[in-house]
């Protein structure tokens, strides 16, 4: 398999997706963390059929590819990205409401979608207020807050297999569990989702609850500098004795600790801010060091929530990255 796109293949993709291809996209500008080299080829499709045509072409040509949303949970390699990167975003953000359902394309901005649910009096996804990302990214991560996940309100997910086949997944088939789903493993691209709501409440009530969540997030989480939200997932064994990751890391004295321009936030120690020109290697170094110290103190391991993408598109939780990618001490 040749990971590099040949010029005739690039032209074929451009012909099929006019205006949907960006060459040499600077990941340190477009990614949420403002970290990463250049991506050779970023492709932004406009719907399920586009995605199906695109991936069946790439697979038939033996070209590997990856899918991203708004990058709010991703750390890109300093070397950038050599394989095509399919970004599901603002070209795929249609939505429709019915009496008790909300349907959306997966590129829809989640805070907007959650607001639409509230305006319809649909209760249940208030906990997603303020979570940056696309609907597809949130489904893939089964994201949420207050230990809830978006998965509990999913009726069906439409997704495209690597060979271009379009499949509708029931909620059970999505395999939702805490901060995970089958889409982290099966290679399908989520393109649409239908959410069903069994509980209704007055808009004002839902709005007030969401505002409260937003205010509390603004107080707790750093707002100004680029970061990827929580770096580590809470480990229940550590939680019982020592508290959530932010507290454990803070108690070890990490607030303000830095490697290059990657700095453990003063406001919340589970966040790593980019103070200017942080490198992926610096962030990975901090993650490794913090994990080691937490393990020494508690006897348990913390896993990273953030995912690292290497230049050939291999996506792994950031604590599983090979040593040679990590900065020297
Ligand atoms: C300040 C801040 C606060 C945050 N707070 C929270 C929080 O409270 N709770 C929480 O759960 N998360 C939180 N996050 C993490 C992040 O917002 C969520 O994980 C979000 O849902 C990711 O969406 P995304 O579109 O940015 O996906 P990306 O980060 O682009 O991708 C995440 C993963 O999903 C996959 N993916 C993306 N789109 C698709 C698709 N269409 N089909 C298949 N796979 C796809 C990618 O391959 C990748 O593995 C926070 C992040 C930040 C920066």
Architecture overview:
With 329 residues, the protein is α+β, with helices and mostly antiparallel strands. The protein has three domains: 7-87, Uridine Diphospho-n-acetylenolpyruvylglucosamine Reductase, domain 2; 95-205, Uridine Diphospho-n-acetylenolpyruvylglucosamine Reductase, domain 3 (2-Layer Sandwich), CATH 3.30.465; 236-325, Uridine Diphospho-n-acetylenolpyruvylglucosamine Reductase, domain 1, CATH 3.90.78. The chain is 29% helix and 20% strand. It contains nine helices and 17 strands. The protein has helices spanning 7-16, 27-30, 48-60, 110-119, 135-141, 203-220, 236-242, 245-251, 280-298, and strands at 21-26, 38-43, 66-68, 74-76, 85-87, 95-97, 101-105, 122-123, 154-160, 166-170, 189-196, 199-200, 258-259, 262-264, 272-274, 307-309, 315-317. Strands 6-7-11-9-10 form a five-stranded antiparallel beta sheet. Strand 13 (258-259) and strand 14 (262-264) form a beta hairpin. The two termini are 35 Å apart. Bound molecules: flavin-adenine dinucleotide. Flavin-adenine dinucleotide is lined by residues 32, 67-74, 88, 106, 131-134, 136-138, 140-141, 143-145, 183, 189-190, 221, 227-229, 307, 315.
The domain tally reads 3
Cα(first) to Cα(last) distance is: 35 Å
In helices, the fraction of residues equals: 25-40%
What string gives the helices and strands in order?
HEHEHEEEEEHEHEEEEHHHEEEHEE
CATH architecture of the largest domain: 2-Layer Sandwich
The helix-and-strand class reads: alpha+beta
CATH topology of the largest domain: Uridine Diphospho-n-acetylenolpyruvylglucosamine Reductase, domain 3
Query: Can you summarize the main beta sheet?
Result: 5 strands, antiparallel
Strand arrangement within the widest β-sheet reads 6-7-11-9-10
pLDDT averaged over residues: 95
Named once each, the bound ligands are: flavin-adenine dinucleotide
| Shape descriptor | globular
Number of strands: 17
With helices defined by DSSP (H or I, 4 residues minimum), what is the helix count? 9
Low-pLDDT stretches: none
Q: Provide the CATH top-level class of the largest domain.
A: Alpha Beta
CA radius of gyration is: 20 Å
Proportion of residues in β-strands:
15-25%
């Amino acid at each position: 398999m040749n990971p590099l796109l040949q010029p005739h293949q690039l032209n074929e993709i451009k012909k099929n997706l006019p205006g949907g291809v960006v060459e040499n996209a600077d990941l340190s500008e477009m990614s949420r963390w403002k970290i990463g080299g250049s991506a050779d080829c970023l492709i932004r499709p406009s719907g399920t059929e586009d995605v199906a045509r695109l991936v069946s072409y790439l697979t038939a040509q033996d070209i590997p590819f990856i899918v991203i949303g708004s990058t709010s949970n991703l750390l890109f390699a300093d070397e950038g990205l050599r394989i095509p990167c399919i970004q599901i975003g603002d070209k795929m953000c249609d939505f429709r409401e019915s009496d008790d359902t909300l349907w959306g394309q997966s590129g829809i901005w989640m805070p907007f979608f959650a607001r639409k649910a509230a305006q319809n009096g649909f209760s249940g996804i208030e906990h997603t207020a303020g979570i940056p990302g696309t609907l597809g990214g949130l489904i893939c991560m089964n994201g949420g807050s207050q230990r809830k996940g978006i998965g509990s309100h999913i009726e069906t997910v439409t997704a495209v297999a690597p060979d271009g086949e379009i499949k509708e997944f029931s909620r059970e088939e999505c395999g939702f569990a805490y901060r995970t789903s089958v889409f982290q493993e099966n290679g399908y691209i989520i393109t649409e989702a239908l959410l069903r709501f069994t509980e209704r409440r007055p808009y004002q009530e839902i709005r007030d609850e969401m505002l409260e969540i937003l205010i509390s997030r603004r107080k707790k989480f750093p707002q100004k500098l680029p970061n990827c939200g929580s770096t580590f997932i809470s480990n229940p064994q550590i939680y019982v004795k020592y508290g959530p990751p932010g507290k454990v890391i803070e108690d070890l004295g990490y607030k303000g600790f830095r490697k290059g321009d990657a700095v453990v936030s003063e406001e919340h120690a589970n966040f790593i801010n980019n103070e200017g020109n942080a490198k992926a290697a610096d962030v990975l170094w901090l993650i490794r060091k913090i994990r080691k110290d937490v393990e020494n103190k508690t006897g348990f391991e913390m896993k990273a929530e953030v995912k690292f993408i290497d230049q050939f598109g291999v996506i792994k939780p950031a604590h599983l990255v090979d040593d040679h990618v990590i900065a020297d001490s």
